[in-house]
Specification:
The chain is α+β, with helices and mostly antiparallel strands. It contains four helices and two strands, in the order αααββα. It has helices at 2-5, 14-24, 26-34, 60-66, and strands spanning 39-46, 49-56. The longest helix is centred in the N-terminal third of the chain and has 11 residues, at 14-24. The chain is globular. The model has no long low-confidence stretch (mean pLDDT 84).
C-alpha cells in the first residue's frame, strides 16, 4: 500500500515520507492512490495473533453535513 502512496509525497528518504504521511492525512492520500472505497479491510497484529476487520468508509462531506 505504501509503495503506491510514496510517489504522491515529495521527500528524499522513507523516514521523511512517513512523517509527511502522518502530517498530510493518510485518508486523503489513500483516496488519491486507490480511489473511492466503500469498505476498507485492515489487519491488526498483536503479539502472535492476527485479526482482520472490514470497516465501512465515511465520506467527509456527509460527516460535516450531519453536524
Amino acid at each position: 500500500m505504501l509503495q503506491k502512496i510514496y510517489p504522491l509525497l515529495s521527500a528524499e528518504r522513507r523516514y521523511f515520507k512517513l512523517a509527511k504521511l502522518e502530517l498530510i492525512s493518510f485518508p486523503r492520500l489513500y483516496w488519491q492512490a486507490f480511489g473511492e472505497q466503500k469498505n476498507i479491510e485492515i489487519e491488526i497484529k498483536k503479539e502472535d495473533r492476527v485479526t482482520n476487520y472490514q470497516l465501512k468508509s465515511i465520506k467527509l462531506i456527509e460527516d460535516y453535513e450531519k453536524k
